[in-house]
Design a protein that fits this description.
CATH architecture of the largest domain: 2-Layer Sandwich
Strand content: 15-25%
Bound molecules: nicotinamide-adenine-dinucleotide
Largest sheet: 9 strands, mixed
Strand order of the largest sheet: 14-13-12-11-7-10-9-8-15
Number of strands: 15
Distance between the termini: 7 Å
Structural class: alpha/beta
Number of helices: 9
Helix content: 25-40%
Mean pLDDT: 94
Radius of gyration: 20 Å
Length: about 375
């Protein structure tokens, strides 16, 4: 593998453009092509002096890509990624891993069969805030999780919904588009989710998909969480609007969006404040805040650096297809709970026999 990896971006929409901007700052990569069937993709490629291809097959035939970022609508994730992996092209695939469990399981099988690196783009896991929080939680600094609350008020403009897939069941809606990130983080911090309950409403926008939902989770290891999400509610209390991880798209407000209360202490994010008692916990005594120190880094850059390491050296992806598929299973259970009004058990048995990470043998091109 040469020093610089020639990489193509498949899908030059909202997040594809974030990757294109990020690649311009990354020394280990050279953006070599864009794939997008729309005229907007072609004009972006022309403005950057890059070749543009209408589909992934013509990109593969051209031989100009040694790696690819797949940032296309969810239902295309499997066919596009499968074609790339079979052509021995490592893939950084945007979340959610696929539009359905069947497609996700098929993708896991293709990744295992080919041994080509497949990293799923739950980019927050590469954020130093998340790494530090994970370290503190796993070191027992909040004790056992008792309860967590997560808020996501994400008032999106009408133009956002011009792309039809964002209004379509199975692809759009804030549960699949946004809550999947929160589910990924909660599982990362506190382990597997055993049961979900949910209420969803499309009352604000009237689309076929929900615009607002309230979700309750219980974790297999103990502890409960509530999550409130809406793409029609105004307020800064959301990770996207407070963590400052994509300042080109979103302002960062000085508020918190995640609160974890444990048997020993509390932790809020993204401000990384640990709230500890002096001595035994007692609600009548003052808690002392400590801000956990980190060196800030752009998670999209960190994600690409990890992708480069996977391509060059092999090893396990930080977010494997298995991990991302477990998120999808939880989301599916939330959808069923909202539709039936009943508690739904999370059944991860389709992942039995699939190792914690989808391996790769470092045999990229
Ligand atoms: N990591 C994140 O935080 C994050 C943020 C936004 C979106 N996403 C994910 O990224 C994906 C894209 O979302 P978006 O908001 O950028 O969508 P978008 O609609 O803005 O862009 C999708 C682009 O893909 C192109 N496209 C469609 N089919 C294609 C194909 N077969 N081959 C090549 N190009 C194709 C479209 O023309 C469009 O330009 C979705 O899976 C979404 O869930 C992730």
């Amino acid at each position: 593998m040469p020093q610089t990896i020639d990489i193509a971006v498949i899908g030059a929409g909202a997040i594809g453009r974030t990757h294109i901007d990020t690649l311009a700052r990354m020394p280990g990569f050279r953006l070599s092509a864009i794939v997008d069937p729309m005229p907007s993709g072609a004009s972006l490629a022309t403005s950057l002096g890059l070749p543009v291809f209408p589909n992934v097959a013509t990109l593969i035939d051209s031989g100009v890509a040694q790696a690819a970022i797949v940032a296309t609508p969810n239902e295309t994730h499997l066919p596009v990624s499968e074609a790339l992996l079979r052509a021995k092209i490592p893939v950084l695939l945007e979340k959610p891993v696929a539009e359905s469990l069947t497609s996700a399981l098929r993708l896991i099988a293709v990744a295992e069969e080919t041994g080509i690196p497949l990293l799923v783009g739950h980019h927050r896991r590469h954020n130093p805030i998340i790494r530090k929080a994970h370290e503190a939680i796993r070191a027992g600094r909040i004790g056992d999780l008792v309860m967590a609350t997560v808020t996501c008020s994400l008032a999106k403009p009408a133009s956002y919904f011009e792309a039809a897939w964002r209004r379509a069941p199975g692809a759009g809606g804030p549960l699949l588009i946004n809550l999947v990130h929160e589910i990924d983080l909660l599982r990362h911090f506190f382990g597997e989710i055993s049961t979900v309950q949910a209420i969803a409403s499309n009352g604000r926008r009237g689309f076929a998909v929900e615009d607002t939902a309230a979700v309750c989770l219980s974790f297999a290891g103990g502890g409960l969480a509530t999550l409130c999400i809406s793409d029609a509610a105004t307020g800064p209390w959301a990770w996207d609007l407070s963590a400052g991880e994509n300042m080109a798209r979103f302002p960062a407000h000085p508020v918190t969006a995640h609160h974890y209360a444990g048997s020993r202490a509390g932790l809020s994010l993204p401000d990384l404040t640990l709230w500890e008692p002096e001595g035994e916990p007692d609600w009548t005594r003052k808690l002392h805040p400590t801000k956990l120190a980190i060196e800030a880094a752009d998670p999209y850059e960190a994600q690409l650096a990890h992708f480069a390491a996977l391509i060059r050296e092999g090893g396990a992806p930080l977010v494997s297809a298995r991990d991302a598929t477990a998120n999808l299973i939880v989301l599916d259970a939330i959808g069923k709970a909202a539709a039936t009004g009943r508690a739904v058990s999370v059944d991860l048995s389709p992942l039995d026999g699939i190792s914690g990470t989808v391996f790769n043998n470092g045999s990229g091109p």
